[in-house]
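Escalated from tier 1: iron/sulfur cluster holo job.
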Amino acid sequence: MNTVLRKMLFVDLIKGLKVTFRNQDPKNVYTEQYPLQRPQVAERYRGAPRLNNHPDTNETLCIACDLCALACPENLIIVGSERNEKTRRKELTIFTYDLSRCMFCGLCEDACPVDALELTQDFEMANYTREGLTWDRETLEKGPQPKAYRR
Ligand code: SF4
Ligand code: SF4
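Tier 2 regenerated the structure:
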């Protein structure tokens, strides 16, 4: 068929539409239906940070050693502590983590000698303000609270 005739009869357009409609079957849809279906993230995915507590005592595991803050190339972790005169141990007073500057490299998590700081698999960290991205100790201990979406 010559080119002019093909153009007049919309042959290429019809061929393209055939391909499109052949793949309209719902079994061929691969789009993730987020947020109704939460995607499976990789086991070693590094997402929202959490400061772990001891499961039995609910006391923080953090020993306020400051190693995570020193390991962070972005200097975005602030650890505050005071010495307990009775036990002579340092006790955690402040812990802040500025998510807006974090590149989720995991160096802080690796530096922690007691597995207190963990980058979890939660990826929902969007916020309307920059200030909201600075997580304090309470937020970090509570951990990510992903929303359950329903129709
Ligand atoms: S993941 Fe990397 S950039 Fe983020 S706080 Fe830890 S060390 Fe810093
Ligand atoms: S989170 Fe870990 S590395 Fe950071 S201050 Fe606490 S114990 Fe040290």
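The domain at 49-142 is CATH 3.30.70.3270 (Alpha-Beta Plaits).
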